[in-house]
Amino acid sequence: MLIGWGAGDETALRQLFPLVERELHRLAHIYMLQMRPGYLLQTTAVINETYIRLIEQDRVKWQNRAHFFGIAANMMRRIIYNHLRDRKAGKRGGFQVSLSEAMFVSDETYNQIFALEQALEDLSQIDERKVKIIEMRFYAGLSIEEIAEVLQISERTVKRDWKFAKAWLAREIGK
Question: How many angstroms separate the CA atoms of 135 and 150, rounded?
Fold first, then answer.
């Protein structure tokens, strides 16, 4: 179905989404657990926005399930971060279901999320692959094997990059 959707088959997309919706909810839930307590986030709003952005992806040649969920995890991370950034700046976002009333984030939690996002942006300037590994492992919960398959690298390289990226992020965030 992913390949069909990538080739422009709208029927494949309509059949695919109900199958992946539960997994997208799981990914959003995992991400929110990583953000620490002190906030309430409406998962459905994040899923809806992710879905909208995914269906706009007409140039992606979907490789497999892991590739799809890796991209979805990246989108969720950016959606949540952008919403928090805009909210902190006093702007209102473009969510179909507004997160403004559903989300409370303390200044401390916001600062931690902002520091992580900034560190990931900085790391992307050094090595984009390591950022992709962090996204797929941390945000999407993909296994080392799945990440190796998506990125077409060895599992050993994934493990080495994962270890380096975690240490690099810890150092950058701890500054």
Answer: 12
Q: Which two tokens stand for residue 147?
A: 């990440």
Measured distance CA(147)–CA(93) in Å, rounded: 32
State the residue for tokens 């109900």. Answer: 18
The one-letter code for the residue type at 42 is Q
Q: Please report, as a single letter, which amino acid is at residue 120.
A: L
Token code pair at residue 59: 């140039």
What is the rounded distance in angstroms from the CA atom of residue 10 to the CA atom of residue 5? 6
**b (16+ CB within 10 A) / e for 130-169:** bbbbbbbbbbbebebebbbbbbeeeeeebeebbeebeebb
pLDDT digit string (tens) for 18-72?
778 877 877 777 666 665 544 445 677 777 788 888 877 767 777 787 788 888 8
CA–CA dist 64, 140 (Å, integer) = 14
* Tally of residues, the chain: 175
How many C-beta neighbours within 10 Å does residue 128 have?
Answer: 10
The alpha-helical segments, DSSP class H, found in the chain are: 2-6, 10-34, 43-55, 65-88, 107-126, 128-134, 144-151, 155-173
The first and second tokens of residue 100, run together, are 């403004």
